[in-house]
Design a protein that fits this description.
Threonine-phosphate decarboxylase; alpha/beta; 37% helix; four-stranded antiparallel β-sheet; Aspartate Aminotransferase, domain 2; PyrdxlP-dep_Trfase_major; EC 4.1.1.81; lyase
């Protein structure tokens, strides 16, 4: 099977259950669907080039000043734009972590230095600060919770990373696209550090939590308005469509959706963790809407992804991630009935 760079590539396969992409299993909020369908004729006109109503909605939701916010066509566009605006020579990227950082850095032509997460301790961050101190870099990417492992950066290490980078004029790009799946989002988001670190950029998106992957809407936050302006110059005009603007405003207005999401994800993530552990898989603790696991040693040669696909189930191989064993896989947390189908098929394939 071809090497996977992203999940969700279902278009050349017969897939009935896609566990490879981590989208909220509740689906798009009803209010978002209504907002998209309302006033279809309005899409004949250009969108608000400054997306003022959307910017105010994000500002209200995040409790961050509107002039500290920039929106884009998904998080990926903003990651690309930040790299071009900062113009680094070298960037630090976690191994393993989201491949989009490498793509953005390589597209600009900068070098990549990897700081390795500790596989023996659940891909933890204990040695990260020591590695960063020895690097000659101008930008550092952190993913919190990390993708594909789902673990959070401990508070003391997070602050240490921010201090090291501020003292050395290194821009920190904190990707929090999965952090809203944690009920403690308001407490643990890096946005509480914006006033103290003008080298901090936070990237977030509606893609995962609000199941709006096809709409493409992300936003960044920074107290460095000069950097905000430089990033803005790297973005095309009208990059946020009228559909995306309406959808984003409606998504943030739905309070019950968040509550139901947190309840579902915590319950079903624990179910999957227990079932995978019972199959003797190594399961890495996660605070996101996905789990990464490693096959039991006795089944390390099993082509579990290919076998599941024969049953119409797609999971994400972690073979494309740096510093990850070849027999690691990532699965999304879905509705209970879907999770049961996955587990039952895995038990048959692994004969456990």
């Amino acid at each position: 099977m071809e090497k996977q760079i992203h999940g969700g590539n279902i278009y050349d396969k017969e897939v009935s259950l896609d566990f490879s992409v981590n989208i909220n299993p509740l689906g798009m909020p009803d209010g978002v669907q209504e907002a998209i369908l309302n006033d279809i004729n309005g899409y004949e006109t250009y969108p608000d080039i400054m997306y003022m109503a959307l910017r105010e909605a994000v500002a209200g939701k995040e409790r961050v000043q509107a002039d500290r916010i920039l929106c884009g066509n998904g998080a990926s566009e903003l990651i690309m734009a930040v790299v071009r605006a900062v113009r680094p020579y070298k960037c630090a990227v976690a191994a393993p972590s989201f491949s989009g950082y490498e793509r953005a850095v390589s597209a600009y032509g900068a070098g990549i230095q990897y700081y390795k997460l500790d596989e023996k301790n659940g891909f933890g961050y204990a040695d990260v600060c020591g590695q960063l101190k020895d690097m000659d870099i101008q930008m550092c990417f952190i993913c919190n919770p990390n993708n594909p492992t789902g673990n959070l950066i401990p508070e003391d290490i997070l602050v240490n990373i921010l201090d090291i980078c501020r003292d050395r004029n290194i821009v920190v790009v904190a990707d929090e696209c999965f952090l809203r799946f944690n009920p403690q989002y308001e407490i643990i988001s890096c946005k509480r550090f914006l006033d103290d670190y003008d080298n901090l950029v936070i990237i977030n998106a509606f893609t995962k939590f609000y199941a709006m992957a096809g709409i493409r809407l992300g936003y960044m936050m920074s107290a460095n308005t000069e950097l905000i302006n430089r990033v803005s110059l790297q973005l095309p005009e009208w990059n946020v469509s009228s559909v995306a603007q309406r959808a984003g405003i409606a998504a943030f207005a739905d309070k019950d959706y968040e509550k139901y999401t947190h309840e579902l994800i915590q319950r079903e993530r624990q179910f999957l963790f227990n079932e995978l552990s019972d199959m003797k898989c190594i399961v890495y603790p996660s605070q996101a809407d996905y789990l990464t696991f490693r096959l039991p040693q006795s089944k390390a040669g099993c082509m579990i992804q290919e076998e599941l696909l024969k049953h119409g189930i797609l999971i994400r191989s972690c073979g494309s991630y740096h510093n990850m064993p070849a027999d690691c896989y990532r699965i999304a947390v879905k509705q209970h009935a879907d999770n049961e189908v996955l587990i039952n098929n895995m038990r048959q394939i692994l004969e456990v």
